[in-house]
């Protein structure tokens, strides 16, 4: 039987995230009311900064279980991430354990966080992996697009790929949407079509978030 990540641990992670993110930066959260209050939800988060996951974990209205690359689960940090309900995933193989645990989160009515671009990059949703479509179509959970927008090109950065300390970071939640076409099909063609629909929705949300925030 697959062990489901701790919901209580994810709530502890959310509280820690609140303290860290508001202590080190100045988050401005827009649209969090759009997140369904109950039931399974998938956050699709753009990934341009190293703080994107912790930032969303801290400011989101519900505790979140993120799929995080297994390379981060080393030593004390690995035990900490597991303790706060985060999911270790091998990005270079079909990680059936991670898939089962992620689906378990959704089946239990929880929130799954995914970086659909796979790795940190431009954060523009230009290249999506099919994993997001699979989880959305398989579970039927709505996707909530999340744009994390902060400055990485300004002076004052102590660490590469982090916004300057005490700078404003905008987190914009979009309207939930369904990835599937209503047929319930999970064929390769259906997932490809779902990925295309998702990419259009996420790109539109990011453009809207940039207009809204002036980023």
Describe this entry's structure for a reader:
- It contains six helices and seven strands.
- It is an alpha/beta fold and 215 residues long.
- The chain has a single domain (7-154, 162-213), classed as Glycerol-3-phosphate (1)-acyltransferase (3-Layer(aba) Sandwich), CATH 3.40.1130.10.
- The chain has a seven-stranded mixed β-sheet with strand order 1-7-6-2-5-3-4, with helices on both faces.
- The chain starts with 6 loop residues before the first helix and ends with a helix.
- Residues 153-158 have low confidence and may be disordered.
Rg, alpha carbons: 16 Å
Largest sheet: 7 strands, mixed
Tell how many strands the DSSP assignment holds.
7
Q: Beta fraction of the residues?
A: 15-25%
What is the terminal separation in angstroms? Answer: 46 Å
Give the overall average pLDDT: 87
Low-confidence stretches: 153-158
- CATH fold-type name: Glycerol-3-phosphate (1)-acyltransferase
Keywords: Acyltransferase, Transferase
Domain Phospholipid/glycerol acyltransferase: 41-151
GO biological process, one term: phosphatidic acid biosynthetic process
Pfam family, one: Acyltransferase
Please render the helix and strand layout as text.
Blueprint: H1 7-24, E1 26-30, E2 41-45, H2 52-59, E3 65-69, H3 75-83, E4 87-89, H4 96-107, E5 111-114, H5 131-139, E6 143-149, E7 168-173, H6 188-213
């Amino acid at each position: 039987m697959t062990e489901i990540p701790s919901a209580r641990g994810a709530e502890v992670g959310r509280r820690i995230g609140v303290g860290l993110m508001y202590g080190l930066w100045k988050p401005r959260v827009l649209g969090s009311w759009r997140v369904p209050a109950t039931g399974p939800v998938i956050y699709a988060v753009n990934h341009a900064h190293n703080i994107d996951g912790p930032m969303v974990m801290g400011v989101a209205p519900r505790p979140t279980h993120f799929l995080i690359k297994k390379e981060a689960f080393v030593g004390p940090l690995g035990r900490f991430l597991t303790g706060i309900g985060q999911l270790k995933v091998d990005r270079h193989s079909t990680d059936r354990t991670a898939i089962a645990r992620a689906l378990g989160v959704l089946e239990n009515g929880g929130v799954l966080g995914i970086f659909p671009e796979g790795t940190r990059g431009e954060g523009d949703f230009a290249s999506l992996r099919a994993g997001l479509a699979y989880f959305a179509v398989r579970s039927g959970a709505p996707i909530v697009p999340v744009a994390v927008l902060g400055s990485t090109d300004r002076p004052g950065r102590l660490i590469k790929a982090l916004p300057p300390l005490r700078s404003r970071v905008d987190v914009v939640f979009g309207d939930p949407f369904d990835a599937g076409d209503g047929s319930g099909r999970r064929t390769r063609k259906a997932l490809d079509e779902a990925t295309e629909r998702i990419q259009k929705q996420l790109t539109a949300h990011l453009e809207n978030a940039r207009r809204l925030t002036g980023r």
